[in-house]
Amino acid sequence: MPLHTTPQCFNKGDAVEVLKTNPFTIWLPATVLRSTPCKKTRNGQIYVEFQTHYCEESSGSRREYVNAGDVRPAPPPELHRYFKVGDNVEVFYNEKGWRKGKVDDILENSMYFVLLDGVEEEIVKVEQWGLRVYRVWDDGSWLPPLEFQQMPQKNIPEVEQKSRGVKLRIMCSRSWKETFSEGMSVEVKRDKEGCYGSWHTAAIVESVGYDKFLVEYQKLKTVNRSQFLKEEVYASCIRPCPPEIQSFHQFEHLDRVDAWLNDGWWEGHITEVLGGLKYIVCLMTTEEELVFEHSMLRPRQEWVKEKWFTAREFDKTRSSSDMTLKSKELKIRIKCSGRTSKPKFSKGMRVEVRSDEEGYQGSWFPAVIVNSIGEHNFLVEYLTLRTEDESEPLEEKADVSYIRPCPPVIQRIDRFKMLEEVDAWYNEGWWVGLICKILDGLKYMVYFWTTNEELVFDHFTLRPHLEWIDGKWVIAFMKKSKLQVKPKLNLKRQNGGVASHTNFCVGAKVEVRSDEEGYQGSWYPATIVRPLGNGKYLLQYQTLETDDETDLLTEEVDALFIRPSPPVIQQADQFRPLDEVDAWHNGGWWAGQVCKVLIGSNYTVYFRTANEILEFQHSDLRPRQNWLDGEWIAAKKGMM
C-alpha cells in the first residue's frame, strides 16, 4: 500500500495524483484548483480537477474535494526508461490512472506483459510509454529516489523547504509565459498511445492556468478531419521550433537524428547507411528500424536551459567549420568580399556547383572543393553524384563562375505561398521553380519553366530560392505580375499569328500571348480547362494568380492568343550575340535578342518592345521558336 504521510502544501495549478482504492488501488492524475486550505475549513481537504475522470452527467472533467493525505505530487517523467522482468512498475491503466504491477515478460517492439496487484490476478499488455518505475511519496521524497532528486538537508527546517519550493514555482510560471507567447510556433511532445515521444509543430493559442497552454497543431486534425486538433499541454512538453541545420553531407553510423514520420519528428539514431542517400533509423521509443530518405531526417538537437545544443554524437562527426554554412559566417564572407561575385574558395569548403548540361540546366549540386586548378578553375567532389559505375563520388573540373557558397539556411515553419520561387530537391540537386498549387499534407505542386513540368514536393524538400549577386545572397521573392490578360476579340489574323482554327484538347499545355501595353511579346504558360465554342477557351494560368492571391488565375481567352507549348530545347552551347531567344521574366517568356555574352554563361538581352536591356542566366533563356501554320519554326538570327 502507498504510504500515507503528513499532508504537503500544494498551490493552485500544481500537477498532482489522487489515491482511489475502490475497486482497486489507483492514482488518478489531477490539477489543484485551490491552494491547500486551513484545517479549520473542510478538514484539510484539497479541491482538484481530475484529468482522466469525467462527470457522468456531463462531458466535463470531474472536480471534487479530496483528503490532503491522499494527494501526492505528480512524479516527473523519466523518458526512454527500459524495464526487465521482475521490476516493480506502475501501469497507466485503461487511460485512467497508475496501478502497481510487476513486469512478467518482455515482448517485441517495446511491449511488456505486466501482472497487476489486486485480489484477482490480471495480466495486461502495455507499451513502454505506459510504464514507469513504482515509487512511493514518503515525507517529501520519492522512494526509490529519482536519479536527479536532491535529498533535503536535515538541518533546514521543513517550512523553509516548502517556502523555497513555492518561490521556485512562481519563477517557473513567469518564465513559461514569457517563453511561449500567443501565436508562437512551437513543437509539442505527445504522450498519447501510438505517438509517445514524437514532436509535432503547433501554435500557442493561449495560456491555460499556471503551467499549461492551449495549442493548435499545424498538421494533426480532429477525428472527423474537419479542423486542426487543439489540446491543452503542459509547458514541460513544449519547446520552441529548433533552428534548421541543413547539411548535404551524409549522416554517419550512430548519428542521432529526428525522423519525419506520421506528421511528427521521432527521435532515433542511424543504424545503417544505405545507398542513394537513404538510411536505416532505429526509433528510440519503439525500437523499430525503418528506412528514411536524407530529406526526411534532421540532426538531433536538445533544448536545455532555453538554449539549443546539437547532439554530442553529431558534433563529433561534424566538427569541421566548413561543413555547415551559418548565416553569421555568411555575413563575414560578404563583408570581406566587398562587391565581388567571386568569393575565395578554399580546400575542403562546401559549395554548390551549377550545371548547364542538357536536361540539368539551372540545377545546383552540393560539392566540396578538392583543389584549385589555375586561376579560374577548381576540382570539386560532388556529395550526391557518383561515377558511372557508382564506385566513388564524382570529381569534376568546374569554372569559378559556376561555383557559389552554400546558401544560408532559412527556416520555413510557415507554408510557402502561391507563386513563391523555391528550390526543390530533385535528382540529387536543387532545381528552381514556382509554387503553382498548395496541396494538403504539407505538399506543393511546383512548376519548372525550364522543362515545362509540374511535380509534387513535400514541404521539407523545398527551400526559399536565393540568388548570389555581387557577393551577397538576395532572396528572390517572386515579382508577381498584376497582368490581367484581356482577349481582343476584334483582332484580325496576321502572318505569324496563331490560327483561329487551331484546336486544343482539355488538359493541353499551351502558352497565352499578351498584347497589353508593357507586356507585348510575352507568353504565359497555361492549361486548357475546356473549350467554350466560337474559338474561345477557358484556361488556367500556371504562373498568374487571382487578385486575392489564393488560386491560379482562370480566364476566357480567344484562340488567336493561344499557341501550343513549344518543344523543350535546352541549348548546351552558349548563345551568341544577335541570337533570338525567349527570356523567363515575371512568370512568362519574353521575346528578346542576345546583346552580349558575359562571364559564367550569363547574357545581356535586349527587349525591343520595352526598349530595355536585362541580364539573364543561361538556364533562364531558350531558343526562340515561332508557331507558323501548325509547325514550330526556329527564329532566324537578327529577326525579332
TrEMBL record:
<feature type="domain" description="Agenet">
    <location>
        <begin position="81"/>
        <end position="139"/>
    </location>
</feature>
<feature type="domain" description="Agenet">
    <location>
        <begin position="573"/>
        <end position="629"/>
    </location>
</feature>
<feature type="domain" description="Agenet">
    <location>
        <begin position="414"/>
        <end position="470"/>
    </location>
</feature>
<feature type="domain" description="Agenet">
    <location>
        <begin position="178"/>
        <end position="246"/>
    </location>
</feature>
<dbReference type="InterPro" id="IPR008395">
    <property type="entry name" value="Agenet-like_dom"/>
</dbReference>
<feature type="domain" description="Agenet">
    <location>
        <begin position="343"/>
        <end position="411"/>
    </location>
</feature>
<dbReference type="Pfam" id="PF05641">
    <property type="entry name" value="Agenet"/>
</dbReference>
<feature type="domain" description="Agenet">
    <location>
        <begin position="8"/>
        <end position="79"/>
    </location>
</feature>
<protein>
    <recommendedName>
        <fullName>Agenet domain-containing protein</fullName>
    </recommendedName>
</protein>
<feature type="domain" description="Agenet">
    <location>
        <begin position="249"/>
        <end position="305"/>
    </location>
</feature>
<dbReference type="InterPro" id="IPR014002">
    <property type="entry name" value="Agenet_dom_plant"/>
</dbReference>
<feature type="domain" description="Agenet">
    <location>
        <begin position="502"/>
        <end position="570"/>
    </location>
</feature>
